[in-house]
Amino acid sequence: MWKTILRRFLVMIPQLFILSIMIFVLAQFMPGDPFTGLITPDTDAATIERLREEAGLNDPVHIQYINWIKNAAKGDLGRSYTQQLPVTKVIGSRVANTFSLSLLSLVLMYAIALPLGIIAGRYNGSRIDKVITSYNFIALAIPGFVLYLVMLLIFGYRLGWFPTSGTVSTSGLTGITYMLDRLYHMILPALCYAVLTTTSTIQYLRNEIVDAKSQDYVRTARSKGVPIKTVYNKHIFRNSLLPIAAFFGFQITGLLAGSVMIETVFAYPGMGSLFIDSVTQRDYSVMTALVLLYGLLTLIGSLVSDIIMSIVDPRIRIE
Fold first, then answer.
1. Cβ atoms within 10 A of the Cβ of 134, count?
2. Which of 140, 118, 268 has its CA nearest to residue 195?
3. In 61-153, where does DSSP find H-type helix?
4. Quick one: what percent of the chain has pLDDT higher than 70?
5. Between the CA of residue 5 and those of 151, 308, 313, what are the distances in Å?
6. Cα–Cα distance, 197 to 147 (Å, whole number)
7. Is 231 within 8 Å of 218 (Cβ atoms)?
8. Which among 99, 77, 96, 97 has a CA at the least distance from the CA of 87?
9. What global pTM score does this model have?
10. How far apart, in whole angstroms, are the C-alpha atoms of residue 17 and residue 134?
């Protein structure tokens, strides 16, 4: 087990190195520079040149990359050009919001997807299976931003059941009141996101259950007189959950990375909305740090999925 984890961790190092080069090169091709939009007509050329020199933008590209990666390895991701704060502090102020929203979305997603996938697989071909399959196709076809805007319009503005922006109603809340208010602000965006991300889990689980019902070990158990409920609980469901476990790591990182659109629509101050702000304001240091962080999370998600699979399915464990 530990050999598997160590081997996968070592593979991540060159992947992360290649990712950092790609991010840095792509950032170089972006129009303008970090000071675009910050200077005024009164700013003279000497001041602009001094700012570029202080930021190291006049150095050769490879020197800029080496300095950037060396500082990143030390935990120094630079300084935000727009907020005049360390990038780690800017991102750190948003991490908790995005993580809590993603965690609630993940819980809601599995709470919806697992029962629907199990019911559709067990009663495949029935009316309830057709209803669930139709829901799956509709959820897959709807663009995310369309559903977010419709739900925000209906439940936020028309009915007024949920807040339309922010993480808390008023400042000064403490204790359990503060926690409940934060949860109240997350319910609608988390539910919207959960509804759209259930499709793959429902479809995988349904197909696995349908396939498992025709396997020899199931027919053997049925021929021995094992009750149908026991066959499902101890044989079919357990084996059918293996692909779901394999995708668990990717689901976590996908929720964190996919928060860009939903945080923007719901004006939720998380990492996703910070990424959009950094792109529109050409805040290079924040933008490159966030892309690097998203890439790192994807690699960690892949590692987590491999570890989970090696735990639940010893056949794929590398000795």
1. 10
2. 140
3. 61-73, 87-122, 127-141, 144-151
4. 90
5. 42, 11, 15
6. 12
7. yes
8. 77
9. 0.77
10. 43
Three-class DSSP category at 166: coil
298: which 2 tokens? 């994807």
Count of CB atoms situated within 10 Å of the CB of 298: 18
Query: How do residues 208-236 score in pLDDT, each as one tens digit?
Result: 888 888 888 888 887 888 888 888 877 78
* Cβ-count burial 112-132 (b if 16+ within 10 Å, e if not): bbbebbbbbbbebeeeebeeb
Task: Calculate ∠ Cα 43-46-52, nearest 5°.
Answer: 90
What distance in Å separates the CA atoms of residue 101 and residue 89, rounded to the nearest whole number? Answer: 20
Which tokens hold the place of 12? 């991540």
Q: Where are the alpha helices (DSSP H) in the chain?
A: 2-28, 45-55, 61-73, 87-122, 127-141, 144-151, 175-197, 199-212, 216-223, 228-231, 237-240, 242-246, 248-257, 259-265, 271-280, 284-312
CA distance 205 to 242: 9
CA distance 303 to 297: 10
Asked if 27 and 284 touch (Cβ cutoff 8 Å), the reply is: yes
pLDDT of residue 35: 63
Q: How far apart are CA 193 and CA 288, in angstroms?
A: 25
Overall size of the chain counted in residues: 319
Joined tokens for residue 240: 């059918």
Name residues whose C-beta falls within 8 Å of residue 87's C-beta, 6 or more positions apart in sequence.
77, 78, 79, 80, 285, 286, 289
Q: 22-31, 200-209, 220-229 — which one is most confidently predicted on average?
A: 200-209
